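batch_manifest entry 22 of 60
target: 6-phosphogluconolactonase
source organism: Listeria kieliensis
requested by: lab member K.T.
priority: normal
notes from requester: please return tokens only, no post-processing; we will run our own comparison against the previous entry in this batch. if the run fails, retry once and flag.
--- input ---
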Amino acid sequence: MKLITVKNEQELSELTGELLIGWMLSKQTRFNLSITAGTTPEGVYRYLAPKIEKSRAFRHVHYYNFDEIPSTDPAFIGITMRDLNKLYFNPAKIDASQIHHLTSENYAEHDERLKQDGGLDAILLGIGQDSHYCGNLPGATQFEDQTVKVQATGALRTRISGHFDSPDLVPDHWVTMGPRSIMAARKLVLIALGSQKAEAIWHLVKGPVDSKYPASILKLHPDLTVIADEQAMKEVQ
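--- output ---
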């Protein structure tokens, strides 16, 4: 595990962006990348988008979302893809042929599709205050899971309800790449900002592997880079 402490969001965004650019350009053949939505990577995408848009050197990069909260409205694409379109795909003018959408309809074939495509070269991850990553929340998935459908009941349903304007719109499930699928990627980079992430970072870096803290499993990956600001890293300095 590589730990990189930065001073602020701008430094995190630029460093992570340059790291991803370097990885993308390390191959001339197809490069498969899975990226995260959420607030932490917003600066990363602002940094990346104009560089990717202006260069033909990244046409070999293919993108995969690693989770999706579907909509009960058939005209709505899904929470994750909606956010990725807004944050990155549209500003960077990524061609539709380079984007591969994980959905409720194709999740059972997702791991085989990735295998046929050559596997994921890298994943950009965030981490939640509760140590969740992707759709792997405490109590939602098991460490041995590949890509799965998670039933959104009780507290899990409440967790995703904030994405919707009405309780009637909240779906009864979401889909996510499970721990086994994430660990199969060649490289992982995880980013975090703020003191509210400090406990989750401690469990990732210092704590034992424990299903109560889903991201703790990531410490076993052979090529994990953690980039976080001083506040997020304060418990592991």
